[in-house]
Design brief:
The protein is an alpha/beta fold and 444 residues long. It has one domain: Glycosidases (TIM Barrel), CATH 3.20.20.80. Helices cover 40% and strands 14% of the residues. The strands form 3 sheets. It has an 8-stranded parallel barrel, surrounded by 6 helices. Bound molecules: 5-hydroxymethyl-3,4-dihydroxypiperidine.
Length: 444
C-alpha cells in the first residue's frame, strides 16, 4: 500500500508525559502533580517529576525524531512552565526552553506543531475552579497570546487542545484523570468552557500568528454493539458518539451541540458563545486507538450506556483496547461524510505492548508493528475512498508517563530505561523508518 504523494509523516509527544524537570527553572505545579501526589490515583505511585527527563535530553530526542525521517513534531507546551500561576508573571526560563526546543527542530528540518494544552492545567488555576470557571476562556486566550508572541515566527501549525473530551469527561465526570472530579454537571460545564477557550484562542492566534495553520485534536471514537445489545438500544451508539465526538466537533464544524446532549449543555451557554466556538479552523487532528464496545447502563447513571469488554475473539493491546484498523477507517469516513471532509492529520495512533528487551538490549516489538500495519491499512483505505487525510504521527516517540497507568504501559517507538534514561529504538522504530522513507507499507 502506497500513500499519496505529499503525504506527511511526523511524531507526537506531550509535555507532562516526557519533560520531567519538575523542580527546574521555576516551573509551576500542574493538576497532574497534585493528582500524582494523591495516594492510590496513579499506578505504582508514579509521578511526572522526572519522566523521560526530556527537559534536559531534548536534543537527543530531536535527533531520534530526525533519524526516524519524520518531518512534523507535535509537542505540547506546559502552561505552568511559562506561566507558573497560569496568569500574570511569566517565567523567562520556561519560555527559553521552548525557544531552544523550536530552534532545535528547525536545525534538524522538523516542522514545529506546538499544542497549547495537553491536560497539564496549572494548579493555581484549578484552585480557582479550573475549566469549570468561565474565566478559563480568558486565561487560555492570554496564554495563547503569550506563546504566539514568542513562537509564531517559527511554528508551522498550532494545536489549541489535545483531547478536550478526555479533560472534560475523564477528568471531571469519571475522576480517572486530574483534577479527579466525579460531577457530571461540572464535566459538561468544563466541556463548554474548553470549547469556548478553543474559540477564543483561534481568534488570538489568527491575529498574532497570521498565515499559520490552527486546529484542535480530538480522539474520534466509534461505538460498537455486542450480541446482547437489543435493537431498542441502538440509539445509545449515537448518544455515545455525540458525547465523545459531537460535543467537540459539532460546535466547531456546525455551530451547535448535538440535539441529544443539548439538555446537558444548554445551561452553560451564554449569548455569542456558539459563534465564538464556530470560528473556522484549518485542520482537525485525529487521535484514534480502539473501537468502544457498549452496553446499556444497568444502574441509574449519568449516561444510559456503559463501557463493555471487547468480544473475546478481538486482539487487544496491553491497555485492554481492542485492535481494529477498520474502526479507524470508519472514523475517518465519518469525518468525510458527516463533517464536510475537513483536512485531517492523524496526530496519535499506536499501542501499548509488553516490550521485553533481548540480551543485546534490543526490543523486537512485532505486536506493535502488526498494530501499525492494521491501522495504516485502515487509513490507506479511507484515503482511497476520498477521506482528506494528510499526515500520520505515531504515538509515541518515547515510552512515557501513561497518566493513571504510570510507566508500566509503554507506547514508544523508542524504549526508555527509566533508571538510566537510556533510549533504545525498537523494531517498530525501524519499521516506521521504512514506512516513512518509502511513503508506503513494506510488504509483510
Ligand atoms: O498517552 C495518551 C496521550 O496523552 C493522549 N492520547 C492517548 C494516549 C494513550 O493513552
Amino acid at each position: 500500500m502506497r500513500f499519496p504523494d505529499g503525504f506527511q509523516w511526523g511524531v507526537s509527544t506531550s509535555s507532562f508525559q516526557i519533560e520531567g524537570g519538575a523542580d527546574d527553572d521555576g516551573r509551576g505545579a500542574s493538576i497532574w502533580d497534585t493528582y500524582c501526589a494523591a495516594p492510590g490515583k496513579v499506578a505504582n505511585g508514579d509521578t511526572g517529576r522526572v519522566a523521560c527527563d526530556h527537559y534536559h535530553r531534548w536534543a537527543e530526542d530531536l535527533d531520534l525524531i530526525a533519524g526516524l525521517g519524520a518531518r512534523i513534531y507535535r509537542f505540547s507546551i506546559m502552561w505552568g512552565r511559562v506561566l507558573p500561576e497560569g496568569v500574570g508573571a511569566t517565567n523567562p526560563k520556561g519560555l527559553d526552553f521552548y525557544d531552544r526546543l523550536v530552534d532545535g527542530m528547525l536545525e534538524r528540518g522538523l516542522k514545529p506543531w506546538p499544542c497549547l494544552y495537553h491536560w497539564d492545567l496549572p494548579q493555581a488555576l484549578q484552585d480557582r475552579g479550573g475549566w469549570t470557571n468561565r474565566d478559563s476562556a480568558g486565561w487560555f486566550a492570554d496564554y495563547a497570546a503569550l506563546m504566539a508572541g514568542r513562537l509564531a515566527d517559527r511554528v508551522e501549525n498550532w494545536v489549541t487542545f489535545n483531547e478536550p473530551s478526555v479533560s472534560a469527561w475523564v477528568g471531571h465526570e469519571e475522576g480517572r484523570h486530574a483534577p479527579g472530579l466525579t460531577d457530571p454537571r461540572a464535566a459538561a460545564r468544563a466541556a463548554h468552557h474548553i470549547n469556548l477557550s478553543h474559540g477564543r484562542a483561534v481568534a488570538v492566534l489568527r491575529d498574532l500568528s497570521p498565515g499559520k495553520g490552527i486546529g484542535f485534536v480530538l480522539p474520534v471514537h466509534k461505538g460498537r454493539t455486542l450480541p446482547q445489545f437489543q435493537e431498542r438500544d441502538a440509539h445509545l451508539i449515537r448518544l455515545y458518539e455525540d458525547k465523545w465526538n459531537g460535543v467537540f466537533l459539532d460546535p466547531v464544524y456546525k455551530g451547535r451541540y448535538p440535539d441529544s446532549v443539548l439538555d446537558r449543555m444548554a445551561e452553560h451557554i451564554r449569548p455569542g458563545d456558539m459563534e465564538e466556538i464556530n470560528r473556522p479552523v484549518d485542520f482537525l487532528g485525529v487521535n484514534h486507538y480502539f473501537p468502544t464496545y457498549l452496553l446499556p447502563s444497568e444502574e441509574p447513571a449519568s449516561w444510559p450506556f456503559r463501557f463493555a469488554e471487547p468480544p473475546k475473539y478481538m486482539r487487544r493491546t496491553e491497555m485492554g483496547w481492542a485492535i481494529d484498523g477498520d474502526a479507524f477507517r470508519e472514523v475517518l469516513m465519518i469525518l468525510k461524510d458527516e463533517y464536510g471532509n475537513p483536512p485531517v492529520h492523524v496526530t496519535e495512533n499506536g499501542g501499548a505492548f509488553i516490550d521485553v528487551a533481548g540480551p543485546d538490549g534490543r526490543v523486537d516489538d512485532q505486536d506493535r508493528i502488526a498494530y501499525y500495519r492494521d491501522y495504516l491499512t485502515g487509513m490507506g483505505r479511507a484515503i482511497a475512498a476520498g477521506a482528506d487525510v494528510r499526515s500520520f504521527m505515531p504515538w509515541s516517540l518515547l515510552d512515557n508517563f501513561e497518566w493513571a497507568r504510570g510507566y508500566a504501559k509503554r507506547f514508544g517507538l523508542v524504549h526508555v530505561d527509566f533508571q538510566t534514561q537510556k533510549r533504545t529504538p525498537k523494531a517498530s522504530y525501524r519499521f516506521m523508518q521504512q514506512v516513512i522513507a518509502n511513503n508506503a507499507l513494506p510488504s509483510g
